[in-house]
UniProtKB/TrEMBL annotation:
The keyword Signal applies. This is Outer membrane protein assembly factor BamB. It comes from the Bacteria. The gene is bamB. The keyword Ribosomal protein does not apply. Part of the outer membrane protein assembly complex, which is involved in assembly and insertion of beta-barrel proteins into the outer membrane.
Amino acid sequence: MMTTQHHRWTLPLVAGLAVALAGCSAPRELVKPTPLEEIDNQQPPKVVWDASSGGDQENQLTAIAPVEDEGRVFVAGPDGDVLAYDLESGKRLWSAELDADLSVGGGAGEGLVVFGSEDGRVFALAADSGERRWDTSIRSSVDAAPSVGFGDVAVRGRDGTLHVLDAESGEVRWRQSKAPPALTLQGQGRVLMFPDALAAGFDDGTLAVFAREDGRELWSQAVALPTGRTDVDRMVDVDATPVFADGVFYAATYQGKLAALAAQGGRELWSRDFSNTNNIAAGGRALYLSDADGVIWAIDRRSGDALWRQSDLKHRGLTGPALINGYLIVGDREGYVHVLSTTSGALVGRADWGDPLVDPIQQVDGRGLAVSRDGELRVFTLD
C-alpha cells in the first residue's frame, strides 16, 4: 500500500467503505519530506504578475488549475467565482458567478470557457465577456477539467461516464460509460480530442479511444491490470491525462505501469512498473513525470528506459512537472517551486512562494501559469 503521497479516494457505494477500511487496517506511517540542500540558484522562477484566482483551495480534494485560450487566462474559485485576465498584462477582463461548487478546473476553446460542478452541471461562458451561453446537467459530479474542441465539449463524470456535448447548444450528442471499481482515486485526466476521435483513461486501468462523431469505441487497452487481495491493492486508476506524440499514446496508472500504446489499435509498444497520478510532460525524446514517492524521472519515449532520475525532492508532495523554456518546473507541498535541467535532472533553480501550487502547472508561450492553494494566480517565467 502506498504511504507517501496524498490521494483522493472516492467510493461509488457506501458498502465499499468497509472494504477500504479492511484494506487499510495497519496505520499509515508518516514519511518526512527530504530536507532541501543548497543549490546554485541559476534559474529561479520569476513572477511576471499575480492576481486573485477567485478563492482559496485549502481543501485538498479541490484542484482548480488555470486554463488559457487566445491570450486570455481563466481561473475560478471553489464557490464558482470565475475570473478572466489578459495573459500579457494581467489586466482583469471580466468576472462571473456560477453559483456552483467547483472542484476541478475549466476548459477553453470554440470561443467558450467551460466549467463543471460537483452536482453535475456544466456551464459554458463566452470567453470574451463571461456571458453565460448555456448550462447542462450530466447527473454526476464533474471529475475532470472539460476539454473543448472541434465543435464539442467532452466532460468526465465521477460515475465513469464520458459525455460529449455540442459546443454551440450544450446538448448531449453521445454518452459512454465504464463502471468504476469499488474503490478509486477522486479525479480523472482530461479527454484528449482529435478531429475524428477522443481518448481517455479510466479508473479500471484502461485507455480507450472513441469515434468523435457517434461515440463508438474504436479500441480499449489495459495499461495495468489490478492485482492484490484488497480493493486498495487493486487500484490502478489512469488519473494523469495521457500524452499523445508521434502516433503514440503514453499513459500511467496509480500503483501499476507506465505504457506506450500505438494509436492504431492500442498495441503495447513498451511498459514499465510505475505509480503516477500527476501531470506528465513530454519534450524531445523524453517523458517527464514523478512517481508516488516524489522521485522525478525522465523516460525515453522510444524504449521506456530511464534517462535519469532525481530523488532530492523525495516525499515532498510534488506537482507533476511542467516543461517551460527547456526546463522542468515542479512545486512541493511546502510552497517551494523547483527548476530542473531536462538533460540531467539537476536542480538549477528554486523559489519560496509560501504556499503549495495546484496541479497541473500550465505552460503557454514560454510562461508558466499556476494557482496556489491560498487563492493566487501567478504567471511566471525563467530568464
